[in-house]
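Bench notes, afternoon.
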Amino acid sequence: MPAGRSRDHTWTVASSAVSIVTAFLASACCIGPLVLALVGVGGGVALTTLDPYRPYLIASTVVVLSTGFYFAYRRPRATADTCDCPAPRSRTAARVLLWLTTVVVVAFVAFPHFAAKVLG
């Protein structure tokens, strides 16, 4: 497998994972206390201290997701016809994971906006 292909797949998967983490942190001020209250753990209100950092976390999530889309959809480098390189792997799995991650990220980011209507 060409080194570029492996690196692209790794970057796509890594950016998906980082995007989910940063999106969760961005909505931790709203989701965290709710989840902790549902399982009966007190003190979840302390997570509301993350609220001022929410715009920065959302921006970093967008940057990381954009990086993932760049690596998942960019054109591979042209190689000479005489190359004995193996056939490149399909990026379908990485692309599906990236789109699933995007759906999860959108749900995390949108949660504070619709939580009051759903839960209230």
